[in-house]
Amino acid sequence: MRGWQDEQLEALFTARSERQLFDRLVGIVRKLGFDHCSYGVRAPLPLTQPRIVVFDNYPTAWHERYAAGNYVTIDPTVRHGLHSLMPLRWSDDVFDAVRGFWEEARAHGLRHGWAQPCRDPSGVAGMLTVARSHEELGDTELRAKAPQLAWVAQAAHIGMSRLLVRRLVPEPERPLTAREIVVMRWTAEGKSAAEIAMILGISTRTVNFHTSSVVRKLGVANKTAAAVHTALLGMLY
Questions:
Q1: Where residue 223 falls among pLDDT bands split at 50, 70, 90?
Q2: What is the reported pLDDT for 89?
Q3: Where are the alpha helices (DSSP H) in the chain?
């Protein structure tokens, strides 16, 4: 008999679309005792307005209120997910600074919840949130279910990344060469073209040639933007 993880892995990894994957994720979460779930994916770029895709089965009224109020900017669980990979259980303390937001969520049936952030080598961040209106999420239940929820969050993130990354973070039409990656690595360290030339034993002109090539491939404005892009997208390793 196949194990629980194998069954969930197959369900999530064989999904042919983001919506199909999320629908299967909802089914898994419900079997674990939660009525609602949300999965958000955030691309690392652009820095000023990163692309965000969110799937959820929250009550329609709350979904609309959350969007209308731009609550993503004040939601402490979102802020937590951007700075930590540790799981977060909802509590009064978590929402202490946004009591009005917390009371609204509870009024819409989102009273007890848990969130697990994820992040992959390409810089794409994600977070699974599960919630329900009944029965507080106690320590005993959480100890029993946290490993499964964490595993599901990671599997969902891998699945979502597979389906979404190319749309959220388009790859350059031509891959970077080994020399271009080395040049960008030193650029990201703050080295000038002349310093990189000395380190690599090549001419400054050659360094500038490789830098210009990377700028064109990535479609960015200059070498600073190129260094930021390659670093955030995990292209320098």
A1: very high
A2: 96
A3: 4-13, 18-31, 60-68, 76-83, 99-107, 139-168, 178-188, 193-200, 204-218, 223-232
What does the DSSP 8-state code read for residue 126? E
**Total domain count, the chain:** 2
As a residue count, the chain comes to: 237
Quote the CA–CA distance of 78 and 127 in Å, as a whole number: 8
Higher pLDDT, 129 or 162: 129
Note whether 116 and 150 are within 8 A (CB). yes
- Verify that 199 and 114 share a domain, yes or no: no
Amino acid at 55: F
Q: Locate 97 and state its tokens.
A: 């600074």
Query: Which structural domain range is residue 23 located in?
Result: 4-168
pLDDT digits (tens, 9 = 90+) for 38-78: 999 988 888 888 888 899 999 999 999 999 999 999 999 99
Q: 76 to each of 50, 82, 214, how far by Cα in Å?
A: 18, 10, 37
Q: How far apart are CA 54 and CA 126, in angstroms?
A: 9
Whether 115 and 126 have beta carbons less than 8 Å apart is answered as: no
Gap between the Cα atoms of 201 and 218, Å rounded: 26
Residue 184 lies in a domain: yes
Q: Is 32 exposed, middle or buried (0-12, 13-18, 19+ CB in 10 A)?
A: middle
- The three-state secondary structure class of 133 is coil
